[in-house]
Here is the input.
Amino acid sequence: MALWGVGLGFGLWMLATYAFPPRPSLSALVDQLQAEPAPAPILTTSSEGWALGVGKPFVNALSSLGLPGKGLRADLAVVGKNVDDHLAEKAVLALTGMLLPSLVHLVLAVADVGLGWPIPLVAGVLLAAGGFFLPDVHVRREAEQRRSTFRHALSAYLNLLRVLLAGGAGVDGALNVAVGVGKGWAFDQLRHALRTAKLTRTTPWSAFRRLGAELGVQPLTELAASVSLAGTEGARVRASLAAKAAALRTRELAFVEGEAQAATERMSVPVVVLCAGFLIFIGFPAVANVLGGL
Here is the structure.
């Protein structure tokens, strides 16, 4: 009964929040009017649309709770997913997980197979919680994979820059020529950053700095600082770019080795469980006979 009361209260709260959304305070509105407009983000997001049509009524309620957090918003920007789509997907999966056990229970009840209400109730709560947090786990995992891919591509981009600068190319020319060689999502983002810098009449290294901050990739921010010195003060950056490329390769190699070792450790767990089960299967009859003879 307590779980039913919690679920009913949560549902009524979501309906009330949807019908009467909270209003921002006067100070927040004044700060919003006086704040300087922030530059448009370089990373773009797209709307998938499959969950937004069903879960749109719950988006405002979840947003009023402060969801998603700052870190998750950055991950959503990396994977190119809209915040409203993500919140709608969380709501749809949570509702599906909550209602699915009840539907199964009704089908079994029609077939005269009774399981009792506690089982579908507990299963509904667990599945709703799992469906609510599953999109967050998926987004974080995909964002980390994209960051790793970007760091790998950035290492190749640094080597191309070093070769072009050694051949006598200028900084701006080297940046544009090197980015045109590569393929894939990471080089698309670099090209988009350079295109944004050209359209907004800003320097390429400022666009790289913003892109590095949005992606959460520190080596790109460091690259922007090095290129800034070369573009404004004429500093020689070939040795610095070579060192950064080598450091990135070393870091990625260490990360791959760590992942391989972790996978090896995970593979040993089923083997240990299988051996333990085999030993129990062999030793149980002897232990049962000894205990039965006492």
